[in-house]
Each structure stands twice: as C-alpha cells, then as structure tokens.
C-alpha cells in the first residue's frame, strides 16, 4: 500500500507551498478559515482581499485557476440555498429588478456564500498541495489522538479497495441483467450493502491478524517524523497573519 | 447536511467543536472496549465501508435516488462508540480532503451527523429491543425505528445550533412545514435501507451485528453423544451494561426529543445535503435550515444593533452548548466508569 497512493485531489509539485511541513499547512489553513469566519459581513472589501490572498497562495503553489474553480463546485448545493434566502427571509425588503427581496436575506446569502467559498477554497488548496499520508502525519503532529489518526489512515488506505469491491458487485449485478429502478429493488441493494459490510469487517480482521503477526501491539511506529523549523512556521503563518490584519481592519473601519 | 464555513457563527462553532471533541474522546475509549486492540484496523475498515456505502444509490422513482447516511447503520452494526468514531473520521476526511463541510464547522457536523444520529438511533434501538420479543425480526424492526428517528434527531440538533448561532434569518413557519416533510421522507428512506441492510447481515453473519449479540444461542458441544455447554467465552459487553446505560441513553433521547418539540423547525443533518441533493429537494431543505433562527437578529440592517445582539446570541449559544456538551460528557463518563467496574469484576471469572 506504499507507493502510488496519491489521491486524485492531490496535485504533485515542488512549489514552496508543497514543501512546507504538513502540520504547518493544516494549522495555517484552519487559522485562515477561523479569521475569515469571524470577519463582519458588512466589510465586503475584506472578502475581496481574502480572495486575493487565496489566489496568491494558489499562484505560489502553481495550482491552475481552472483546477481550483472546478473543485469549488462541491459548494453548489449551498449556492442554491443562498440564492433562495433573499426570497424567504423576513424583514425590510428592497426591490431589485422588479423582485421584492429581503435585505437581511441578501446579507445572509452573501455571508454564507463568501465565507463558505473562501473556506472551501482554503481546504482545496490544502488538499491539493499536501499528500494524503503527509496530511495524516500532520494531523498526528498536531496532537490528534494517534488512534484517531490510525483509523483515518486505515480508512484512506482501504477506501479505494472497498469502493472497488462495491463497483465489482455493481458490475456483477448488471452483467446478470439487474437494473435498480425503484423501491422494489432496494432489497437487492441492501443485500449488497450487507455483503459489503461483512467483507469489510472480515478484511479488517485479516488486516489486524497480519499486523499482529508483524509485531503490532496497539500503536504504529512513526518512521518518517516531520519537524518544522521556525522559518517554516513563520512562512506558513504569513497567510493567516495577513488575513488577521484584514479582519481587524474590517472590524475597525 | 454538511454545514459550510460561515453558516453557524464562531462562538457556537467553537462550543460545538468542544462538545464534539469530548464525544470523540469518550468514543475512543469506548471503542477500545468494543473492539480492544483491533480498534484501529476494524474501525478504519468500517469507516471505509460507510464512505463507500454512501455512494450506493437507491433509486426512489423517476430518476431520483437517495443514499444511506450511515450513522444508524454503523451504531447498530459495530456499536455506538465505534459508530461515532467511524462517522466522525468520515466527516473529518470529507472536510479536509473534499472540502465537503467547512473546517470551522467540523464540530457542528460531527455533533449533528455522528454523535446525535448514533445516540438517537442506538438508544431507540436498544429500548425497542428490550420491549420486543427477542428474535431476528425484532432486531430489524428496532433498526428501522432507530434509523427513522435518527435523521429528525440530527435535524433537531442542527436547528438548535442554528437557533443559537445561525447567521441568517428566515421565518420559522416556512421552515417548519417544509422541514418536517423533508425529514420524515429522508428518515423513512434511511430506515428502510438500514433495516434491510441489517437484516441482510444478520442472515449471513449474525455474530457481526453488535446490536444482535444477545441473540446468539449458547454454544453446545456434543461430547459422547450428549449436548454439553461449551466453556463460556468472553463476557458479552451488552449484557454487562444493560440497565444504567439504557437509562442514561433514554435520558439523552428525552432531552433531544424535548429539544425537538420546543425548537421544532428543524434543518438538515448530515444526510440532508446528500440525500436532499439527490432527491432534488435541496431547495426546501436548505430553506428550512436557514429559516428558523430565533436569535437571528444578528443579521444585517443596522450594524450596531446587529453586533450587539450577535454578541449576545453568541454568549447564549456558547453557554447552552457547553452545558449540553458537558452534560453528555459527564453522563457518558459515568456510564463508562460503571462499565469498567462491571467488566473488571466480570473479567476474572471469565479468564
């Protein structure tokens, strides 16, 4: 399970952002998102500046804009929701293009859209510049309980295996002429899910036995510990600190 | 529903994060008891299973389809603690890797979709299992009921958080009407799928279903032509913790239900976004979510006023959420302490 397990969200590269230790990046991303969320929504210009900051980081990481924008599509359901808000909110109303819209709804929609989009963009940048394994290592360095990190790493490692098993079952069903068309076919699909659970669980037991036979005693050895120098911390702190400055300006202006 | 950044204000997000952290910490210990040192590989594989099974589409009719949320299923198949852990890990990875659900809203998401769904479904499941005659059919029925209530339960929790720290304001009436319908629908689908899946697993490997461990017939050996009881295996955890745990989970459920009644306009839990999107009902669902926010003065018109009331709402939110969170923590820890003494007394006799 060692090599070649880069997920498709990761974009290989050697930019300064890629080179940063993972825990610095995770901490910087989290700090940035917290700062963005606590910015008052009336300071619209601040969100523009945040977007510029994100774009600058993306440029430093040599992530093409198209890649970033495509990944932002995950947010679409919430955009739809935000669009509805001005129509259903209450309070003072304004006429825009002949439609009566709620002022507070407009602000609410703006708030969710701006902060949500910036948050998604920051996470996308993190995921596309950090390898999965490094990400997990970074989480561990950030004092996430080792057991939780182990569970997450097993989930990531076997996620593709389990998903492929599900796909093989689907191919087997279809090659026998089955096509799920409605609720009357849920029984078959539920049996698929049940079989998948049994296979996953039994695989887990086999994995455990294999680990025990190789000396596993409840904790995983850390063989490639990453440490961050002060300079690297300072470098990764540039983004959240700049954002904080913008945020403070947003509160005072 | 995966809540994005900026949907719930900062103080309430932080409080939800604290509560979620406490719940995950408790689950980490609890899962060790459910799975001992096999926790990491087994919980990891079950998390991968939940991740995969969320991709299994269940067609409803005319091109629409839904899929499983998995909280109730995980709780019943592998036990509540492992269930919370698995769903939390899935949410964590979705948040970090796929940007599905905001990083600052991670606590909110875990609280809604992992902790509440698992607690509600498992409590209902256990209570029903007690009341119903023992048998496979009862397990399926109890699983159905547990999953049915877990979705509205998560919706209630979301509503509660939204009421405390929502950043938008939408009339409660609209939300209420739309939300109830949507959640009954989603819960029904979840319940059907969960019950059928649990039934399918029980038919093949009943020993793997955590919720059905009481069903196993005692092992008999035929020695010299006579049936003899086999030497007792390790004690069944479920038996040791029955009453007290049941009582406490019942209390938690009651609290959740009380929250449901009072705050009635719920929004969507974790399944919301996915199932709703799949079913094409997002619009309504989200409208709901936004709709009910009693403390939503926070919104914009006059800045001074808004900030003041926003701060107040934040303070109230933090206080209430911390109180609820620590209450749950306390309850679970008590439960755990009791379990420990129970198992430590039971262990010597078994070994």
UniProtKB/TrEMBL annotation, chain A:
Q: Which CDD domains match?
A: EcfT
Q: Which UniProt keywords apply?
A: Cell membrane, Membrane, Transmembrane, Transmembrane helix
The record's Gene Ontology cellular component field reads: ATP-binding cassette (ABC) transporter complex
Do you know which Pfam families this protein is assigned to? CbiQ
Membrane topology (UniProt)? Multi-pass membrane protein
Taxonomy, superkingdom: Bacteria
Q: Name one GO biological process term.
A: cobalt ion transport
Q: What is this protein called?
A: Cobalt ABC transporter permease
Q: What is the lineage of its organism?
A: Bacteria, Bacillati, Actinomycetota, Actinomycetes, Kitasatosporales
UniProtKB/TrEMBL annotation, chain B:
Q: Which domain of life is it from?
A: Bacteria
InterPro entries the UniProt entry points to: CbiM/NikMN, PDGLE_dom
The UniProt entry lists membrane topology as: Multi-pass membrane protein
Q: Which residues cross the membrane?
A: 7-28, 40-60, 72-98, 110-129, 141-164, 176-204, 246-265, 311-332
- Where is the protein situated, by its record's location annotation? Cell membrane
* UniProtKB keywords: Cell membrane, Membrane, Transmembrane, Transmembrane helix, Transport
Q: Where is the PDGLE domain?
A: 244-334
One GO term (biological process): transition metal ion transport
**One GO cellular component term:** plasma membrane
Kindly indicate whether the keyword Transmembrane helix belongs to this entry: yes
Put simply, this protein is called: Cobalt ABC transporter permease
- Lineage, opening ranks: Bacteria, Bacillati, Actinomycetota, Actinomycetes, Kitasatosporales
């Amino acid at each position: 399970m060692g090599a070649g397990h880069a997920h498709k969200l990761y974009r290989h590269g050697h930019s300064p952002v890629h080179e940063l230790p993972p825990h610095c990046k995770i901490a910087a991303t989290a700090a940035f998102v917290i700062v963005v969320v606590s910015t008052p929504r009336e300071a619209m210009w601040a969100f523009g500046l945040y977007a510029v900051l994100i774009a600058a980081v993306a440029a430093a990481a040599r992530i093409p804009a198209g890649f970033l924008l495509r990944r932002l599509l995950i947010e679409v359901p919430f955009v739809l929701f935000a669009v509805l808000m001005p129509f259903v909110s209450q309070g003072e109303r304004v006429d825009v293009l002949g439609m009566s819209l709620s002022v507070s709804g407009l602000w609410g929609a703006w708030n969710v859209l701006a902060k949500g989009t910036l948050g998604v963009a920051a996470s996308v940048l993190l995921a596309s510049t950090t390898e999965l394994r490094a990400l997990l290592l970074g989480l561990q360095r950030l004092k996430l309980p080792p057991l939780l990190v182990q569970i997450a790493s097993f989930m990531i490692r076997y996620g593709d295996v389990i998903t492929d098993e599900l796909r093989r079952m689907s191919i087997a069903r279809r090659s026998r002429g089955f096509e799920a068309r409605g609720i009357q076919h849920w029984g078959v699909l539920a049996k698929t899910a049940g079989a998948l659970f049994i296979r996953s669980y039994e695989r887990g037991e086999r994995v455990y036995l294999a680990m025990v036979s190789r000396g596993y005693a409840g904790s995983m050895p850390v063989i490639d510990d990453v440490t961050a120098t002060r300079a690297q911390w300072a470098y990764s702190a540039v983004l959240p600190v700049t954002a904080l400055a913008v945020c403070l300006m947003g509160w005072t202006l | 529903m995966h809540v994005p950044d900026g949907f719930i204000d900062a103080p309430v997000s932080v409080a939800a994060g604290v509560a979620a952290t406490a719940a995950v910490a408790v689950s980490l210990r609890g899962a060790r008891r459910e799975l001992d040192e096999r926790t990491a590989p087994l919980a990891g594989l079950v998390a991968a299973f939940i991740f995969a099974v969320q991709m299994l589409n269940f067609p409803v009719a005319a091109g629409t389809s839904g899929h499983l949320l998995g909280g109730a299923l995980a709780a019943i198949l592998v036990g509540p603690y492992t269930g919370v852990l698995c769903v939390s890990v899935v949410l964590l990875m979705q948040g970090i890797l796929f940007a599905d659900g905001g990083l600052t809203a991670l606590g909110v998401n875990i609280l809604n979709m992992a902790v509440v769904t698992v607690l509600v479904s498992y409590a209902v499941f256990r209570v029903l299992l007690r009341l119903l005659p023992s048998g496979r059919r009862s397990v399926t029925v109890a699983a159905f009921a547990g999953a049915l209530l877990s979705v509205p339960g998560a919706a209630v929790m979301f509503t509660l958080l939204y009421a405390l720290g929502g950043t938008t304001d939408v009339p409660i009436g609209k939300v209420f009407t739309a939300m109830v319908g949507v959640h009954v629908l989603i819960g029904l689908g979840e319940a059907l799928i969960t019950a059928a899946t649990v039934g399918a697993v029980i038919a093949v490997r009943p020993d793997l279903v955590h919720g059905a461990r009481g069903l196993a017939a005692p092992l008999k050996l035929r020695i010299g032509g006579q049936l003899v009881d086999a030497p007792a295996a390790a004690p069944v955890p479920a038996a040791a913790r029955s009453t007290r745990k049941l009582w406490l989970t019942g209390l938690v459920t009651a609290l959740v239900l009380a929250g449901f009644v009072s705050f009635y306009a719920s929004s969507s839990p974790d399944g919301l976004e996915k199932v709703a999107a799949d079913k094409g009902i997002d619009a309504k669902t989200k409208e709901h979510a936004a709709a009910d926010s009693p403390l939503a003065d926070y919104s914009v018109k006059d800045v001074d006023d808004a900030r003041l009331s926003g701060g107040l709402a934040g303070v109230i939110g933090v206080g209430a959420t911390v109180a609820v969170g620590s209450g749950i923590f306390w309850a679970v820890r008590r439960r755990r302490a009791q379990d420990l003494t129970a198992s430590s007394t039971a262990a010597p006799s078994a070994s």
